[in-house]
């Protein structure tokens, strides 16, 4: 079979909801990257550096990430970067024999596995959204978002350690860490078969710049750096990340607002009678049967509101106050 035909049969394109006037589908930060910080980025850029193949990551960025992680056991050899957290996930699927994940989970795990032709195993979460018993071991990489995406609930430390003790490699995807405030990065002191993945897309309003980072053992980081593309994150993107970390108090204040809005929305949705998860991300998740979900999506589309649809229900990004009030009003009308 023609290789291109084989890819067309095996893989499928990543598709998102059409951008409507009110777009609450992709868990983007509702606040723009501050204009004064954009100005600072461009003041700090050296025009001559734009012509060279720039170190990725550069040492200054690694030091700022280490400071942000605020641990006493990590060094520069424990950190690398990716063109978004997605590239890190993509590369890890090339590094291991089999990828394992637990739906409902981040949809790109399956999309990437099929795109690269990786072997993969999907084992659904239990009815109470816990990690099931699964036969994994050395050679497997197990992807676990924490908080989970799309449900936003948090996995217990014991669940993560149960998988780590099998010898399988665990990719702990902490894309929504800032909205939860708790990390399992300290498990790196105990387990070499663990990598923690983070992103600047969510809490730092830098989704368009495509920059994430991974923290793990020196052995893993060395292997990852050999497999990923060289110069994989641009000079400009790294500068945006460094400026963001220099002014993290701005983003911490915004994150506080998003968390408060999330809790407000959860409280109101429960009172309306919706069945929701205890989300710790920058979104809420409502369980719905297919027919009810399709009716809701049609209702919201008529109001130019886009949310993300999953087999189990709908995920709604926390937006600005007026956007949240708007969708709460429509959910009340729909109910």
Helix-strand layout with pairing:
Elements: H1 3-10, E1 22-24, H2 35-44, H3 59-69, E2 79-82, H4 85-95, E3 98-101, H5 107-116, E4 119-122, E5 140-145, H6 157-164, E6 169-173, H7 177-180, E7 194-199, E8 212-216, H8 218-227, H9 235-246, H10 248-272, E9 283-287, H11 290-302, E10 305-310, E11 313-317, H12 321-334
Parallel strand pairs: 1-10, 3-4, 3-5, 5-6, 6-7
Antiparallel strand pairs: 2-8, 7-8, 9-11, 10-11
Helix pairs in contact: 2-9, 3-9, 4-5, 10-12
Modified residues (N6-(pyridoxal phosphate)lysine): 202
EC number: 2.6.1.9
Organism: Thermotoga petrophila (strain ATCC BAA-489 / DSM 13996 / JCM 10882 / RKU-10)
The CATH architecture assignment of the largest domain turns out to be 3-Layer(aba) Sandwich
Overall CATH class of the largest domain: Alpha Beta
Number of helices: 12
Q: Give the neighbour order of strands across the main sheet.
A: 2-8-7-6-5-3-4
List low-confidence stretches. Answer: none
Q: Characterize the largest beta sheet: strand count, sense, and whether it forms a barrel.
A: 7 strands, mixed
**Overall 3D geometry?**
globular
Helical residue percent band: 40-55%
User: In whole angstroms, how far apart are the ends?
Assistant: 51 Å
Annotated CATH homologous superfamily of the largest domain: Type I PLP-dependent aspartate aminotransferase-like (Major domain)
| Average pLDDT, all residues | 96
Q: Strand content of the residues, in percent?
A: 15-25%
Total beta strands? 11
Family: Belongs to the class-II pyridoxal-phosphate-dependent aminotransferase family. Histidinol-phosphate aminotransferase subfamily.
EC number: 2.6.1.9
Protein name: Histidinol-phosphate aminotransferase
Keywords: Amino-acid biosynthesis, Aminotransferase, Histidine biosynthesis, Pyridoxal phosphate, Transferase
């Amino acid at each position: 079979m023609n290789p291109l035909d084989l890819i067309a049969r095996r893989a499928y394109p990543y598709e998102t909801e059409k951008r409507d006037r009110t777009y609450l589908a992709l868990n983007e930060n509702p606040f723009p990257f501050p204009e004064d910080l954009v100005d600072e980025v461009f003041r700090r850029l050296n025009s001559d550096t734009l012509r060279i193949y720039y170190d990725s990551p550069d040492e200054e960025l690694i030091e700022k990430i280490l400071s942000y992680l605020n641990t006493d056991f990590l060094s520069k050899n424990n950190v690398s970067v990716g063109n978004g957290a997605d590239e890190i996930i993509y590369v890890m699927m090339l590094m291991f024999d089999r990828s394992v994940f637990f739906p409902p989970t981040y949809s790109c795990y399956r999309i990437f596995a099929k795109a690269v032709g990786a072997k993969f195993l999907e084992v659904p979460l239990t009815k109470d959204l816990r990690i099931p018993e699964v036969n994994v071991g050395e050679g497997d990489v197990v992807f676990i978002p924490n908080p989970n995406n799309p449900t936003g609930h948090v996995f217990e430390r014991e669940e993560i350690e149960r998988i780590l003790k099998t010898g399988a490699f665990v990719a702990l995807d902490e894309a929504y860490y800032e909205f939860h405030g708790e990390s399992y990065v300290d498990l790196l002191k105990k387990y070499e078969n663990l990598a923690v993945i983070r992103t600047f897309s969510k809490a730092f309003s830098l989704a368009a710049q495509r920059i994430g980072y991974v923290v793990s053992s020196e052995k893993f980081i060395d292997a990852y750096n050999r497999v990923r593309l060289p110069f994989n994150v641009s000079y400009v993107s790294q500068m945006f990340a460094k400026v963001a970390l220099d002014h993290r108090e701005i983003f911490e204040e915004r994150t506080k607002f998003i968390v408060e809005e999330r809790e407000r929305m959860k409280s109101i949705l429960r009172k309306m009678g919706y069945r929701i998860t205890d989300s710790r991300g920058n979104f809420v998740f409502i369980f719905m049967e297919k027919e009810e979900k399709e009716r809701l999506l049609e209702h919201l589309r008529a109001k130019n509101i886009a949310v993300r649809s999953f087999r189990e229900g709908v995920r709604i990004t926390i937006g600005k106050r007026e956007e949240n009030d708007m969708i709460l009003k429509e959910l009340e009308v729909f109910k």
